[in-house]
Design brief:
- By secondary structure, the chain is mostly helical.
- It has two helices and no strands.
- The longest helix is centred in the middle third of the chain and has 53 residues, at 22-74.
- The model has no long low-confidence stretch (mean pLDDT 92).
- Residues 1-24 are annotated as: Disordered.
- Residues 9-24 have a biased composition (Basic and acidic residues).
Length: 75
Amino acid sequence: MQIGNGDKVLADSDSKVPDGDKTRNDLTKALASAKNTLNDRKLLLKAFSDAKVKAVNDAVLAKAQVDAKVAREAA
């Protein structure tokens, strides 16, 4: 996963900063944090979506079971 052009800047700046890579290390940490946040949100959204899909599927199944029961009782 890429965050803006941060990964490219990090790669392109290797051995080119005057502070012994402190700023690059800061960027590395910031990119890692941003990627972790995005991954966490993706997992949360997937879990939310999966739960909603399951709820709809369960409702469809429940209605089909009720419809089948009504049809059996009517016969």
